[in-house]
Amino acid sequence: RAFLEACRGTESYVKMPVDAATDPDEVRRGAALVADALPGAVLYLQPVSDPDSGQWQVDMQGLGVLAATAAALVADTRVLPQMHKLVGTR
Question: Which residues pair with 78 in a beta bridge?
């Protein structure tokens, strides 16, 4: 919370990695913290990818639930894959 509050007044974003084990309530709590401590920040949900296959570790339905949960609290919620893994860098 203190770090997010210290970022107020700057262009900021928060990245939240998610996978199939991520509880929607955990996403809700994280999004509520962002909305309260750093209003106006962009919240990126980032599906974790398997290091070998690059496959997301969450299915589209589960990701949709998590994204809707976050977007209910943070208007600018986006989904961003782990681009470094898609292009073959670590």
Answer: 44
- pTM given for the model: 0.88
pLDDT, average across residues 75-83: 89
| Exposure of 28 in the CB half-sphere (CA atoms within 13 A) | 6
User: Which amino acid, residue 35?
Assistant: A
- Model pLDDT, residue 90: 64
DSSP 49: B
Q: Is pLDDT at 15 greater than 70 in this prediction? A: yes
Contact 71, 28 (CB under 8 A): no
In DSSP terms, 14 is beta-bridged to 43
Q: What is the pLDDT of residue 86?
A: 66
Q: Which tokens go with 70?
A: 């976050």
Strand 13-18's sheet: what is its strand order?
Answer: 13-18, 42-47, 77-79
**Integer Cα distance of 81 and 45 in angstroms:** 8
CB 57 within 8 A of CB 20: yes
